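Sequence, please.
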């Protein structure tokens, strides 16, 4: 798969990202890091990669986060991840082509995006109602048995404090004389 168009691929995958609600910034950062390693390997069908290198590119500090995100990207058909348990040999990755028509293409229009298991979709009206409820909870008139007079402070006039020279400097200093 050495005839990958860099720009078309990135445009295609970003189109797919924009439609996929399961992704978070860590997934996208990890994908871009893997894309860079794939580019460094001249867009071979499969390549071996170092976890430390990819984590560094993606700015991921946790191995747990890295493993969760790469497994999810593989499960969601953005790539194929074949882990190795040999510390001296990197894991294999096969990247799918999102940008050219002469290879396997995942067309964003035809690819079905599903939510992750257990995730419930909530209508926008329910979200707005929840936001309104949270706003109303914080209003004092919604609390019962709350004596708001106890929380108000009485207006006191500010005391006038005469100027104090804490630095003990002279006001008649002559700047022409040397120190």
């Amino acid at each position: 798969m050495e005839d990958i168009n860099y720009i078309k691929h990135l445009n295609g995958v970003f189109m797919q990202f924009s439609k996929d609600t399961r992704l978070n910034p860590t997934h996208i950062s990890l994908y871009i890091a893997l894309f860079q390693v794939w580019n460094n390997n001249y867009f071979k069908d499969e390549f071996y990669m170092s976890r430390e290198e990819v984590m560094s590119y993606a700015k991921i500090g946790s191995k747990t986060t890295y493993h969760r995100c790469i497994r999810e990207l593989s499960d969601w058909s953005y790539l194929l991840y074949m882990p190795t348990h040999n510390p001296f040999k990197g894991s294999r990755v096969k990247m799918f082509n999102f940008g050219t028509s002469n290879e396997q293409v995942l067309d964003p229009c035809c690819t079905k995006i599903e939510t992750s298991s257990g995730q419930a979709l909530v209508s926008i009206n329910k979200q707005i109602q929840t936001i309104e409820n949270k706003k109303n909870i914080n209003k004092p008139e919604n609390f019962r048995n709350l004596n708001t007079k106890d929380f108000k402070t009485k207006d006191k006039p500010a005391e006038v404090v005469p100027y104090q020279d804490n630095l003990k400097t002279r006001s008649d200093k002559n700047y022409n004389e040397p120190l």
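Residues 103-126 have pLDDT under 50 and may be disordered.
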